[in-house]
Amino acid sequence: MRSFEFLQAHSVEEALALLALPSTKALAGGTTLVDLMKLGVEAPARLVDIQALPLTEIAVTGETLRIGALASNSAVAADPSVRRLCPALCDALLSGASGQIRNAATMGGNLLQRTRCPFFRSHDWPCNKREPGSGCPAHEGADAHHAVLGTSDACLAVHPSDLAVALLALDAEIGIRAGHAARQVSLAAFYRLPGETPHLETIIGAGELITHIDVPITPLAATSRYLKLRGRASYEFASASVATALHCENGRVVELAVALGGLGTVPWRDRQAETLLIGGPLSEAVINRFCDALLAPARASAANAYKLALARGAIRRMLESASC
Amino acid sequence: MLKQIGIAQNRVDGPMKVTGEAAYAADRRPGGQLYALAVRSPVAAGTITRIETAAAKSVAGIVAIYTHANAPAALDWHADPAVMALSGEGLGRQALEAAEPEAPPPYLPMTGPDIVFAGQWIAVVVATSLEAAREASLLVKPIIEPHEASVEIDARNDRFLEPGFFFAADMQVQRGAWPDTAAKQQIVSETYRTPMQNHHPMEPSATVAVWDGDAVTVFDSTQGVMATREYVARSLKLPLDKVRVISAFVGGGFGGKNQTWPHQALAAHIARALGRPVRLQLTRADMAVASGHRSQTEQDVALQAASDGSLTALRHVSRVPTSLHGNFFEPSGLNSLMLYEAAALGVRHHVVRKAFATPTPFRAPGETPGSFAVESAVDELAHALAQNPLDLRQRYIPSRDHYHDRDWSSNNLLECYRRGAEAFGWPEGVIVPRARRDGHELIGVGMATTAYPAPALPAIVRLRLRVEGKLQVETSATDIGTGMYTILAQTVADELSLPVEAIEVRLGDSNFPHAPTAGRSKSTASLLPAAQHAARALLQRLAAAVREPLSELSNVALQDRLKAAGLAELEAEGSSTGLQVGQQVSFYSFGAHFIEVRVDEALGRVSVTRVVSALDCGRIVNPKTATSQIRGGIIFGIGMALMEDAAFHPTRARMINDNLADYAIPVNADIPEIDVIFVGEPDNRFNELGVRGLGEIGVPGTAAAIANAVFAATGQRVRNLPITPSAIVRGGE
């Protein structure tokens, strides 16, 4: 691990000022960053410890559930109002990592966690995300656990967050501060496709800080659920996952949301495809048509095509088991 | 009278382990200790042009960087064939000699510019802190001219070697002619594949070397301190008595710490050169390449049976790799020789050299991958014959050791089948695939036979009775999590009519009396008879000292007798002889696994929901630690069946998942209740206590029982492990 300067911020303003320094990273729970520093993948010159900042709230205000960026994954998952208002959020958090890691990991850190692609995480494989232009070993036939949606010639790395998939289905917004300016962007616009620049993963700029996550409180959100598929029963990233929310009246779909994880370079959702399901009853045929449309842009290899089958199986299971 | 043996005794070392009092190798912190870490080659084959170390040397706290350019001279570090023959690189050489008279030169890292596998150590950095060593290790930049490399077995085009005897069995057995296919014969002929697996014990290997004058103490994580002492001493060109190896606690080994590996000697060489204690720590990534692995296997199995099920022919041909310079290969056919008798029998092994690290024994080497193939094939045969797999296996119970032409000392396999089937509720009649469903899940049951030899080697145990304090038991054997501390205490307690609490067992020190390496399930049968003899010798010496007949001794506390005799302490040793040459009978353990799975095909999920295993392992010394051993073996089998797969990059021939995030092993949530039944019949022709080791027998057969259960659930026969979500949703593609 490269030696670094360790700074502690006592206010958001102080943190933002420190984060404006070159080669500086914010340290919250540290469950990804410290790991990657030990592996030699991240080597910031400065770490700003932001754990003392007052960003741990979990509060319902009007029609919005606001969750502070430094609320721990455990605290959010255990919160009764989160469970009642958007159960998928709790299920997604509890499906990830381990109890110890969830205690340390924060919501903002969860959104900014980096891919688990083994080529990215090891300092001596080529990787366009870690070292732009160096190449991608996954593209050379080692893509069994890689993405099939949102890929580019430069990168196939899967986005690892369960939380982000649930938030995408819940139409969440991310609160961001930079200097004195604050902005709010939808989660759908938060992540960037890899394209030719896989090292740029979000719209967050240098010196910016996530302060909170807003989740709209809707009847649809209260129906949300999360299903995660993987090779063992816990403590593993998703091979495929799906967050769904479904609101039916008289046996017909009025509103729904379906977001996918484990398949995309970013959390994946297709609102156009969702319109195929709206207005009618949920039949096997229409669910299949929806899956066809949702997965149409997929570029799969023989080794990772199973992810498409898993995603179909998960979507079908979630929709068929929902009351409609 | 046996009071302690047979009692479910808690581990006597348990409190030390859970409180952190037990010191593992890397817990030792001698004053002035330096930290050493290795740098691995990212390419699988090539020649090192140069290694750039300037950036690494500029890291604060760096003391030294060794590469092939300076290590031989600075460390007296050379690939001496006689020394390498003692190491993991040499194991299997005799077997390969017949096919390859001239051995390839032995591999030792940092002795030359050639890269022979990805992950090969090309440098070691030494620093005053672990953090500095880690930073510097990332800055060492090798310039390598790459060559072509392959780790894939190519059945058609590879040049295979045909080894001779290995593990006391001919690797090329051919008896009888393969019969002409008759109309009434059922034939199964399939190819089964098992992937490369890593041992990944919880405690990664580490060696701390501390010199005192011309002698060195090596704190190590090894299954065998005596073998390690010999390897380290020979490497340092020192007499044995100048090297002491201590491995009091070992956080799992599974074979990965059974042989000796370069780091164990290298730490001592570096400490000598730098004049300071050195800790050489293997990282998790090192554990995937620097202390052996179980290689992949490809096995063709053909069975031919008459319509009543009687086996007329068995062919088991294994294609297994070894490294370019090492010699170990999986003897996958062993259990086919021991368990199945057919007029026509062909059990052959073809070995091919590939560009990866040298493989090594891994918990039931040979038997584990071999049993997956053969026990799957027997299940396929049962379905082809429309017979219950249990009925068919009962027909196949080997009446004697046909291969060695000897009777069994004891064989209760039939009782294992009976009691296991009863506890499990094994169904009668033909098992119809896809017949049981519960909601989205298909339910299936499968079974398989397991068997493992019961070897024993000579061992010595020393007892020390003192006027005050606990009675001490000393031997150089290691407890790698097996329960050796506890069963030695139980054995001595019984012989001396003492409570277990009155005994202190001290293990894993090469200054203690000789004991074999813990491996191949031999320690119990090697050590316990020696402990018995030591206890009896102690009583005799005490009787002589107090001039009383032996029979009177038990009435008064031993320590009082010692005091009365005016002695501060009294020592006695006992030994065991191991198996005699020219044995008249064969010593083997047997068992059967019965497993239920649930398969959710749409979600690609396989859950193991019930396991009952019934085993014949002689008398059980400690049902608690014995059950733990078997459960651990079965959990290994579950990992092998469903998850474990050391995956290689197809063109770069480099392991991709050399870490525990990407190399999946089961978590608690994957493991159901595992019901272990011991038949418990003492094997009194083996030793007086009738005990056999049981560290490995839980593993063979488990993966086959799971694959057989998956077939019963889904009708899908999976012949390539692991049975991943991908395999389930692809439907046996």
UniProtKB/TrEMBL annotation, chain A:
Keywords: FAD, Flavoprotein
Gene Ontology molecular functions: FAD binding; oxidoreductase activity
Matches recorded under InterPro entries: CO_DH_flav_C, CO_DH_flav_C_dom_sf, Diverse_Substr_Oxidored, FAD-bd_PCMH, FAD-bd_PCMH-like_sf, FAD-bd_PCMH_sub1, FAD-bd_PCMH_sub2, Mopterin_DH_FAD-bd
FAD-binding PCMH-type domain boundaries: 1-220
Full protein name: Xanthine dehydrogenase family protein subunit M
Organism: Microvirga brassicacearum
From TrEMBL, chain B:
Pfam families: Ald_Xan_dh_C, MoCoBD_1, MoCoBD_2
Keyword Oxidoreductase annotated: yes
Entry annotated with the keyword Oxidoreductase: yes
Keywords: Molybdenum, Oxidoreductase
Residues annotated as signal peptide: none
Domain Aldehyde oxidase/xanthine dehydrogenase a/b hammerhead: start-end pairs: 19-148
InterPro entries (UniProt xref): Ald_Oxase/Xan_DH_a/b (IPR000674), Ald_Oxase/Xan_DH_a/b_sf (IPR036856), Ald_Oxase/xanthine_DH-like (IPR016208), AldOxase/xan_DH_MoCoBD1 (IPR008274), AldOxase/xan_DH_MoCoBD2 (IPR046867), AldOxase/xan_DH_Mopterin-bd_sf (IPR037165)
Molecular function, one GO term: oxidoreductase activity
Name of the protein described by the UniProt record: Xanthine dehydrogenase family protein molybdopterin-binding subunit
